[in-house]
Structure formats: C-alpha cells, structure tokens
Amino acid sequence: MYYRVGVDVGGTNTDAAILDIKALDTPSRGVLATCKTSTTTHVTLGIQRAVKSVLQESKVDRSKVINVAIGTTHFVNAVVENDARRLSRVAVIRLCGPYTKKIPPFSDFPYALRNIIEGPHFYLDGGLEIDGREIAPLNPAQIKQTASEIVKAGIRYVAVVGIFSALDHAGIHEERCKTLLQEFQPELSVVCSHSIGGPGLLPRENATILNASILAFARKTIKGFRLAMSKLDLSCPLYLTQNDGTLTDAAVAAELPIKTFASGPTNSLMGAAFLQGLDHGDKRMADNQYVVVDIGGTTTDICALLPSGFPRQAPNFVEVGGVRTAFSMPEVFSIGLGGGSRVRQSKDGKRVTVGPDSVALRLTTDAMVFGGKVMTASDIVVANGAAIVGQPEKVKDIPEELIKAAKADIKRQVEKAIDNMKVSSAPVSVLLVGGGSIILTEGLYGVAECLRPPHHDSANAVGAAIAKVAGEIDVIEVLAGRDEDAAIEAAKTAAINAAISNGADESTIQIAELKKIPLQYVTNKATRFVIKAVGNLHVKGGVARHAQQNGFVNGVDIEEDVEAAVEEVEKAEVAKVEHGSMAKPALGVDLTQYRPKVENGIWHISPEDVQLIASGCGVLGTGGGGSSYLMALYTLNLLRQGAEIRVMRPEDLKDSDICVFGAGYGAPSVSDERVSSGEDVFTAIEAVNTIMGITDFQAIVTDEIGGGNGLVTMPSSARYRRPIVDCDLMGRAYPTLEHGTPYVYGFPVLPVATADCKGNSSVVVTAESNRMVESLIRNTCIVLGNSTGTAGRPLNGNVIKDYTVPNTISQAWYLGRAVHLARQTKLDFIKAISTITPVTALYTGKIVDVTRDVSRGYTIGRVVIAPLSADEAEDSESSSKVVTAEKRLLVIPFQNEYLSAAYVDDEKAEGKEDVICTVPDLISILGQDGEALGSPELRYGLKVRVIGMPAHPLWTSTPEGLKVGGPEFFGLNTEFKSIGEYQRPRSVIEEFDTSKEP
C-alpha cells in the first residue's frame, strides 16, 4: 500500500488529506483522512500540524507515503502586499538589439511595488525576428560587462528577456545568456522569460521580474516545507501544485514560484472533479459543461472545468498585484458570498441582501447560532432546518419571509456567477464544494444538476494529493513551406518529453490541450502552438521518480540555517510609499473636476489626458487598430521625463503650413513582442522629408485615430516640438493605408517611406495605384520584420482643413472621459457617451458564438450575440436600464474591424439578415466596464454592449468615399446602411481654453 498526502494552505485554513493510491477508484476515492486547521503565522508549523493529524488518524506506515504535495498562496501574497522583506531587487536584461527602448522595464508597475524591486536594466544584442532570423547575435563581452555592473549594484537576481524567445527552440539567446552570466558571476540567480510565459514582451517580462523577485523567499519557504516533512519522519519527495492543477517538484518550484501563484482555486476544482469521478475525461465531460462552485466563509470562487479535466485558463493577460502579466492562470470568478456573509433587511422589509461583507474569522463568535448578534448566511440555513450548526434555538425566531428572501438572494447570486463562467450553451452541472456550501440549499436555474461530492469540504487538499504531472510548450513555428501536421506532431512530442522529464508515467500521458493560434497580419504562416501533455506521477518502488535527494532543496541542505528557513517576519516598513501607477494616471482623479490644460489655442497633453485618449481610441478602433496600451505607456514615459506634447485646432493651420504624417504599420502580434524603440517612425518621417527637400514643418497629423495609431503622433510632437493637429485621416480604424481620406479624393500619398529601428528605410516614389502602394510597403514591412514605421507625403494646411476628419483627438478624449467618469459615478456609460457624440445603442447581449481565421494577414470572422434575459440584465444598474427589446440575435462580421451589424433568427445566422448598420459607420463592441473589445478579444459568454456612430460625410456622402470605405471594398453583399446623421465632435481646445475665460 502506498499513500499520497495533499496540503492546501489558505489565508484562513490549512487543509490536509491522505489518499491510498490503490483505492482511488473505490467509492471513498481512496480518502483515508482529512484535516482542517487554522493557518498559522509560521506557515510551516500549520502544515506540520495538519499533516501530522492525517497521518495519526489514518495510522499509515510513513515509509509508504510516496510524496507530499502542497498548494500555497504564500508567494503571491508577498507581491500583492508589497512585502519588502520577501521581495528582492531585480536587474533586467533585454536581448533586443536596437528595439524596445521606448518602454523600459517596470514601466507599468505600481509605484509602491516598483520602488521595492526595481534594479538597473540593460539593452543588449540578441533577440529574434518573427521569421527566426537574429536581430543581432549575442555579444559575450556585453554580457560580461553587464554581469559585473549588476554585482557592483548589490543585486543578485536577474530577469533575462529575449525578443521572440518562443521561437528560440535551440536556446541560443536566453539560455546562452544565462549560462554566460553565471560563468562570469556565479552568485547571480537568473530567470529566463521563455520559461515563464508566451508571446507579448511586456507582460512576459513583468511575470519574469516578479518570479525573480520572490526567488529568495521561495527558496527559504520551500526549505521550511522540507524541514516540516523531516520532523514528521517523511523521507518522500516534496511537490508543489501549480496554477494549472499539475505538480512540480520542490526544486523547480523554488526556481519558478510564480507558477504556483493561483494553485488554491485550482486544487479545489481538481479535487471536486476527482471526488465526483470526473477525473478520467469521460463522455459526460464532452457532452456537458461542469462548473465548480467553492463556497468558503467569505467568498465564493467559480471555475469552469474543461473536457480535459483541467480548469479553463484566463484569457489574455492577468493582473497580479496591479502588474499586467502573461503566464498560465486559471480563470476564477469570485463573489462576496460565504457562510459568514452578513444578511441585511431594508427598513421597509421588502429587500433582503446577503453579503458581500462577512464576519469572516469571527463567525463562531459573531453569528447568531453561536450566541452573537450578527445575522449571517449560516444562520439562515440553520433557521431553515437545512443544517445543524452551533445552537439552532438561537435562530428559531427569524421570520419565515426573511429566510425565504435571503435564500432567494443567495440563489440569485450563485446563478449569475455560474452564468458568467459558462463556456458554451451546453447543459451545466455544478460541483459544490467548500465548508460554506451548506448555505446553498435549493436547485439553480439553468443548472442541470447540482452535485456535492464526498469530502467536499476538503476538496482543495484532495486536489493537491491527486494532482498529475504535465509538460507544456508555448512556441511559435513558421509554417510557410512546411508540413503543418508534421510540425504539430513534433510539438506534441516535445510536450510529452517535457512531461516525462517532469516525472510523469509515460504510459499514462495524454495530450490535454492543443491550441493553434495563427498570428495576425503575418504572411509567413507564423503560428503559436500551446500544447500540454499530462500523465500520472510515475512511482517506482514506492518512490516518486525524479525525487530530490532527501533533505535537499535546490542543492541546499535544509538543516543549514534552519531557524532562518522557518522564521516568519513582519512586513517591512517602506520609508516612502508612492501610490498609483504610471500606467493609470487617471485612477483616483475626480474627473468631474478635472480640466485639461489649454492656453491660447494650444492643448498641453497631461498623463491623465493620455489615459483618457487611449480608452477613446479603443472605441474608435471598431475592433481593429491594435492595442493602444503600449503606445500610451511610451507617451506617459516621455511625459514623466519632462517632454511637452501639444495639440492645435485644424482651423488654426495656415493654408501653406506643411503637415507631416507618421504611423505604425504591420502586425500587432509582432509589435507587441518586438516593441519599437520609436525611431522607426522618426526615420520614416525624415526619409520622406529628405526626398521632398523639406527642412522644416509646422504640424503633425494622425493617420488613424482608432487603436494604437491614435497615439503615435504624440512622441513625434515631443521629438520635433511641433503640435499635433486635432484631426486624422480616417475618423476610425481601417486596415490599409489607402483608407486615408485625402488619398480617397486624389491627393498624393507618394513618396511614402517604411522604416525599422535599425536604420533601414525604403521609399516608394512611384506606383500605378494606391493599392499597389499598399502592396509595396507591405512587402517591405515583411522584410523588415512585420512591424515598421511609415510616413506618407506631407500635405499643406488647406488640404488638412478640407479633407480630414476634424476634432478626433478631442473625440477620443471625450469618449475616454465618458467611460471612466461613468465607472467613477456608477452611471450608464453609453448614456455618458451620448452626451458628447451621436451614438446609437445597437444591442445589449451575451456572445454565444465566435468564429475567426487568419487570411491574407487579417483576422476574418464573425461574432453572434444573443439578448440578455431579465435576470442577466440586472447584473448592473446601467445594464438594467438599457435592456435590448429586440429578441433576435445580432451578427457582426469583421476583417480586423467590425464591418456590419445585422439581426438574425438563430445562432447559425444562415437565414435572412436584417442589416442595421455597415461601414463606413463605426461599430464598436464594449465590455461591461465600457472599454472597447478588439476582434481578437471576443469569446463566448462575454456580456457586451454594441454601439454605432455615424462616419464623417467624406466617407458617406460621395461615391469615392463609399467605394473605398464602404461594404463593397470588404466584399459585403449589402448596401451601405447608416446609423444616423454625423455631427462634428466637440473640441477640447474650444471648451477648455483658459485664455477665452473672462
């Protein structure tokens, strides 16, 4: 007989369970004993008590325990709490050549955390292009000098981040750099970003920095865990549970602690699935969807269980301690509902609410059933006779109507939370776990069955005990000219080999996850593969394979400095705490009182303005244009350094004034990874000016206000000390250069330059058509790495005044302010938007289907949205006031940008369409927070609002405008359908110019 022990360390309780691995398929699921004890200040002491309890109760031979697996929130708490004693300063090395300098490391860290861990950063040769070419070869002399500087600065922890590290299968950059650093300075601990996350340089770098910062603390903590095991006479190997529900041995966890940050909710989910007999991925998992509801004393956590038996992972980035990061994390939806939730009744007795506040740890003293005076959810359940806790006679006088109303509120909250986690329209089965699950006593609407597994109150510890071993790869492969099936099989093999290396039993390994994600705008078929292979922990002779030598973690004797290993210290006092974050300057600003700085017809851009404009550019991006986040960070960093950015009215241009252009051009999936230095746009502007013989210019004009390009002119304003004109060439986002309004009406785009950050530039001087211009610069862009700067021929002020869309920077500012102000004041954001620009609320609903593919470099697909039910519409005050009366579904096709909106009768959208809006009018899809959702961000289950805004008459009132900007250009089989009459946007300069005030 052999046994496995699982431990889950929470903020309140520490749970332990011991399982007989030969009895896992019996009705008891092999659970021999469980224990719940309070989490202690000395975390290792609490673990020791819990494990000792289950060992004594089960009376097993301790030599037959094959492993202990621990899940803990200890490491993430150090980051969330900005704990200076547990966080180390980190130096950052980017292998990037001339790229990425516009956004230094730590740019979007909250100031408080940044002040604790920020060390020096270095830009070294290295990194890869999207096609696998080297940006620059590694330079050992650079690395040697850098290692010396890091040590001189008193820093021992280093994050190494190489551009497109996911392409570096041979380890020629990050891994080679790590080896050289440690050869030159052996005392350095180095974390490579490819071991932390996938594409997206800044979020991956942030996660790598956090991991490096907690290395010392993680190593010390894990030494303490091993010490606790040795005191219990356990000689078996120690594992920690990871965010995805799999195991990693203690030595690896000590080097990659960030992968254990969210193991708690995952342990509960995995334990619930196992206890319910769903751990084999049988047919029930494919036909139904399972949601785990873990109700504790204070909160309820909801996770979706995928057919693979693992939790659904959070999309895109995840914020940890206010830092935007990219690493695998389960998607968890939490609400303030638990056994200790307070129950309140309105003065008129008509409304009863449960939570979100809780008596938490004081449940056994404050709740009525324990002689206290606070009515809690547990009191309601006991009064209803559904549970026996404490002294039931203490709650016998609670009125029946109040009990009924409280139960209804509990039921309503859980139903809404479950609906938020649905992954499809298939029937839902709920697995109910957690000590607080007694508060849910009735069936749930929309739920086929509600199951409470055996040992449900210790599901988290059971989940840790039965966790499997995984091997995961996250790589980019260039598939042009290659057999795609062979590439996939090779990637699968790599994942399987990784699982075996991590300790999985080869005979049990299966592919649990395979994602194939073509990159946007890229023509070489670059595709991201995310593959996970999972198997049971390999056991041979009663010992888990790949065990650490007994008494050692990371090669360090656990008996050495034992006291230091287990000592728990108070949080350090930081001399100066700086609140906020450079990335969120408007946070905490009262926008009802905020006034932009406008003097003598010139708007001086502030950090708050940048954040508002960035949000507005997202709305005007109509699904495309790329993210404005990185460009906003670049601009904010310039302002922090003292740069001046100005905006002027188009009316104030002289007819003879020369206005230049400059924009980003290429694939967002590349520019998010190979972040520009900013020099590419400047090189393109200067190349055109040189050819044109222009030595000076008076203003800068934005090519495209929608998405990231809406902010590109701001660094140019700072660089050249020239104002930006409050206008642009599109009034939205469009996919090609020929969509500039002056070019639609015959004004020349040529010469047009394309440039990278290495000093390379190419200029198109003549071409037979604007479409040929687009082809030529796109081909150049591919050669230069699929992300470049571009600049067209400068135009005179008279053209800008007559053939551009006016006041669009102002429009973006007003849109952003409306969204942020609505969030601050809890108002409806669409009503807020309608006060400053014509907008039609087209639909309120939930996404029920998304299809997409990458063709010709564009993301092409459609989204189907269904109306909300009355209950769903009550989720927020704002949505309840704007419930879609239309009962049909809405379908929106897209080619990066959203092209049309039409009513349909069913999800397949194969019948007749009732078109209500098309390009060139603007269609935007907004999330529940009012922020715009790009077409790559759409997914099933999101509750959204769809709005339409009229386009400028330059697009809608002439055959030329409609031919290029309307349905015909995009191959839509429909006529242009307008949403309403265009109105010129308000001007920030005209409204806030202090020189006009009396």
TrEMBL record:
Residues 769-978 form the S-Me-THD-like C-terminal domain. InterPro entries: ATPase_NBD, Hydant_A_N, Hydantoinase_A, Oxoprolinase-like, S-Me-THD-like_C, S-Me-THD_C_sf, S-Me-THD_N, S-Me-THD_N_sf. GO terms for molecular function: hydrolase activity. Residues 608-764 form the S-Me-THD N-terminal domain. Residues 204-383 form the Hydantoinase A/oxoprolinase domain. It holds the Pfam family Hydant_A_N. Residues 4-183 form the Hydantoinase/oxoprolinase N-terminal domain. This is Hydantoinase/oxoprolinase. It comes from Exophiala xenobiotica.
